[in-house]
Amino acid sequence: MLSKFEYINKVYYLSPIDINFSNTYISVRDKEKRYLKDEDVLQLPYISKSNPHFKEWQLRQKSSERFISYLKNKKEDLTILDIGCGNGWFSNLLAETSTKNNIIGLDINLDELEQASRIFNKKNLRFAYGDIFKISSVFKNQFNLIILNASVQYFPDFNKLMSQLNYFLKLNGEIHIIDSPFYSNHERTKAKERTKEYYTKLGFPEMALNYFHHLKTDVINFRVLYKPKTSIFRKKFKKDSPFSWYSYKQNSAK
Hints:
The protein is an alpha/beta fold. It contains nine helices and nine strands. Strands 1-2-5-4-3-6-7-9-8 form a nine-stranded mixed beta sheet, sandwiched between helices. α5 links the parallel β4 (102-107) and β5. The radius of gyration is 18 Å and the shape is globular. 32% of the residues are buried.
């Protein structure tokens, strides 16, 4: 599938590079202290308590463990696309689950893709740079599972995204969205204001233009495989992801 494309520093290049976005995004992550050293990425989703995002990673541990348990119950060999893979930590977990599964980690964040390809070396794991809307013919009917792990918010049009991903699925393939917020109309208005304020204070106001707030009605036809607990006790003592896990299964011929 990828062998015909340019291959540099263990990354496949499927579409032209948008270096401006990549540079801005990595600058933001560095300012947020989210750009991690190789030795820290290798341990993810486990991270030192001294890391400023330790509590967030505690929640992501549970989300990833829940998904890996789901994946282990799959009996067939799978081809999996991890969209927005970043530094590759989740793609690596997927590859470790079974050597019979083949994983592609896809992103347009070049720095972290090169980091991922440098530190995660598995025969069933490959990393690729590509805009999904420019590579339709490459991925047509190729995947059993497509995962958006904390990445759906970087796509402006949810329906257009799902239509494209459905085109990438094999018959009975699945799309999974985890650790990603969805909003009511009222919630979305406030969330947009918070996002604009956050990136402005960080010194990158333009980044707010690349962050999108999708509605709960967008996923009304998805299955919910995990729903956060709402009781005060569960929130305080049984901390887990505040975001639902949504799943869609493609079950008709295309």
